[in-house]
Structure formats: C-alpha cells, structure tokens
C-alpha cells in the first residue's frame, strides 16, 4: 500500500517532532497532526517559532520548512482520520490515578477513545500505528475495538515505538540507532502494512536499521529499553551514595567502568534522579504486567529501580536541609533548573518538583530560574502533588526570569537541571550577593567544584566525598 496521507492523533512531545521530521523527509506525503487541545494546535501554527509548544533544538527550522507545504496542524480529528491511509496514535498514556492498577498501570482511556474515534470516522481501510508507549498487548485491544466498531473496513495495527530522547529529539529522529516496527508477521496483509511503514522511514534511514518484529515483541522492547536505561541511572546513583561515604569519586568510577566496551560510557552520569514522562511510567508498566502474570521476583526486581530513584531525590533534599543546620524554614533556596533535563521545556516527573516539594514541606522559600519553563508550568507541577493549598504554593514558590535575582540573598543554590548556561555565570558576583556561608548543591555535577571552592563556596556534588 502506497501511503500518501498520514494523520497523527496527538500533537505533543512525540507526535509533533516525529511528524515534522516525517513531513520534511517525505515531501510526497501529506502529514496532518491533530489534537483536541486548541491552544496547543494554535501554538504549533504560530508564526513566531519561539512559541511552538515543544522546545527542541532544531525543531523550529524543520517546522518552518514543512508547515503549510505538507505538514498541517489542526483540531479537525475526524476529517484527518477520514483522509488518511495511515493513522498514528500519539496521545498521552499517563499512569492510572484511580481504581485497579492505580499508581502502576497505564491509563488507556485516551487510547480507547482514539480507537473508537478512528473506527467511527473511517470510510476506507487503514493502517493504525501505535506510537505512544503502551503496555504489552495494547495493540490487541485496539484491533478488537476497530474490528468490532468499525464500518466493515479492514485495519492493520502496527507498533512503532518512539526512541527519541527529549533535548535531542531532532537528532534522534534524523539519525536513529534503529527504527522498530511490530506487526502481524503471520499474514500477507500484516507484512504489507509493515512494508508500507518501512518504506516511509527508508526515505532517510538505511534499511538495515529498520527492524520488524511481531507486535508484542515491539511493545515489550520499548518498555525494556527504557527500563534498562533507567536501571543504569539508578545503579550509578546507588553507588554515588556509597562514594560519598568513602574516598571514591563517582565520576572516576563512571569513567573507569564506562571504558569497558561491554558496559559503555553512556547513561552513567550520577544525578539528583531521573525524570521524564517515560522511565518511571514504563517501569511501572513492566512491574504491573509482571505482577499480573504472578511473576513477583521479576516485578520486585524492576520496582527497585524506582525506589532507588525516589531515594536519590529524597536524600538530595535532606542533604540541603542538614547542611543548612537542619532548618530551612523561612530561608531562601535558589533552584537553577526545573526541566527534567537540559534542552527541553518538559517538566514531567522532573526531580526538581519532588526536591522542591520536600523543601516546601519544611517551610523553605524556593525561588526558581529555568530558561525554558514558565511559572505557570511550575505551579501546575507543584499543585498536582496536592501537598498544600494553591495559595501556600504561591507564597512559598516563586519563579524569576533572572538567575542572578534568584540567587540574590539565598542561603543555598541547588542545581536541578544541567543547562549549559549555568556554567558560564559570573559565580564571583553570585557569591557576593548571597547569605554566608554560601552553599551550592550540584545535583548534576555540572559546575567546576574547585573553581567555586576557590571563590569561597561550600560545594556538595553528587557522589563525591
Ligand atoms: C527516554 C529514552 O532515552 C528514549 O529513548 C525514550 O524514547 C523516551 O525516554 P527521555 O526521557 O526524553 O528519553 O530522556 P533521557 O535522556 O533518557 O533522560 C531521562 C532522565 O534520566 C533525565 O532526567 C536525565 O537527566 C536522567 N539521566 C540520564 C541521568 O540522570 N543520568 C544519565 O546518565 C542519563
Ligand atoms: P507525549 O509526550 O506522549 O507526546 P503529550 O502529553 O505531550 O505526550 O501529548 C499528547 C497529546 O495528545 C496532548 O496534546 C493531548 O491533548 C492529545 N490527545 C489526547 N487524547 C486525544 C484524543 N482523543 N484526540 C486528539 N488528541 C488527543
């Protein structure tokens, strides 16, 4: 089947960048990205490219290149489905906050809604592609809904999990390590659907990097890849605590083990804890599915990765409190960074939120500067935890547009995100504007410890004694 029109449901961090790259690389294909969120679609259509809803280096140029030619953003979901030969599902799949599986299983109500909408709006056969991270066997449920509620049209379901990392999404999309496509490998129609999607990626990805598997292997591979990556971060973070109690230095340990080609150097950076929309959610899915098959040891094994991450965030907050003479009540604490990593405006599950919450519980006044995150977003994140009233959150947490203002008069600075610009600040000026003794808690081991100590700062770095 030759694909000439694509629809993508969900214009978020996955759908937006992925479709922009497909449109740019496949000028012969019309790509429509649709969303129920009018404000988000308006932002994607904004002529001011600084106002795109997703900040990713390089994305603005790609959108400018393709938008209006073969890339369109709209809220008319039904029309886009109707026209399309291939429909990508890229909607959010947050962890359930109620009922069975609360706190662990993915909430699939958005996916089900999408499947029903695709069935109702379709007046021809279609290939439906799962792009969102989903628990294993979701494709089966989507197929069941489409086959039973559709108007007699045939649907092929593919799983095509996204491996882009935020902050490097454009690079990852343009030059992926691999593209994974799961489909019904046992039927000619399934193989044909897989081939259609392979042909799209083959416009810019070499065919030997495009892997096809059955649907369930594809779904499980996505969860597994994220679980392995998160496990590496928790492993190195667990050792950072041991380093702090000994004379070892986590940076030296990472470098030494990373030279082993079997281990490799990536994802060994000790930090205040991993965040992002995927790691925790995917591991929780893995834990939930393992438990539902009675595999207690498997579930417990993966759950420990999350426990370690929670511990790392908590111990960072406790370290700040202990170093400030066991009381932060009424003290100004400056946060540099709120995003879950640099080069993104995404804050989902960011360690900063949890560290802030801990300090706010102790009555601290937290002032935050992040180059890409709005104050509104910060309040949304902290309100979501329901730890105190919205009024109290606004009294205790402030956002500022100037990092020097944030640090002025502070008892301590905490680095929560590894934004490059933090390295270039005039730390001498900051030192003289702060309460003494000046303390820096570097949750990303970003700053030059020795240089800061020469200025007079007391510096706590993760995993260094
Ligand atoms: C991840 C996967 O990398 C990607 O393939 C998948 O598609 C989505 O989930 P993402 O969450 O965007 O991507 O970012 P990633 O670079 O994986 O970082 C996740 C978190 O781990 C961040 O908070 C980051 O700061 C932290 N991290 C990463 C560390 O603390 N140390 C490291 O060495 C690496
Ligand atoms: P991700 O990181 O997976 O891309 P986001 O939350 O950034 O997640 O984006 C998901 C998008 O999907 C949101 O903009 C949301 O409004 C949209 N969405 C959710 N359900 C539907 C639906 N039924 N139809 C259209 N869009 C939807």
UniProtKB/TrEMBL annotation:
InterPro entries: 6-PGluconate_DH-like_C_sf (IPR008927), NAD(P)-bd_dom_sf (IPR036291), UDP-Glc/GDP-Man (IPR017476), UDP-Glc/GDP-Man_DH_C (IPR014027), UDP-Glc/GDP-Man_DH_C_sf (IPR036220), UDP-Glc/GDP-Man_DH_dimer (IPR014026), UDP-Glc/GDP-Man_DH_N (IPR001732), UDPglc_DH_euk (IPR028356)
One protein family per Pfam: UDPG_MGDP_dh_N
E.C. number(s) listed in UniProt: 1.1.1.22
Pathway: Nucleotide-sugar biosynthesis; UDP-alpha-D-glucuronate biosynthesis; UDP-alpha-D-glucuronate from UDP-alpha-D-glucose: step 1/1
TM helices/strands, residue ranges: none
Domain spans labelled UDP-glucose/GDP-mannose dehydrogenase C-terminal: 334-449
Swiss-Prot/TrEMBL catalytic activity: UDP-alpha-D-glucose + 2 NAD(+) + H2O = UDP-alpha-D-glucuronate + 2 NADH + 3 H(+)
Highest rank taxon of the organism: Bacteria
Keyword annotations: NAD, Oxidoreductase
Family: Belongs to the UDP-glucose/GDP-mannose dehydrogenase family.
Protein name: UDP-glucose 6-dehydrogenase
Organism encoding this protein: Belliella marina
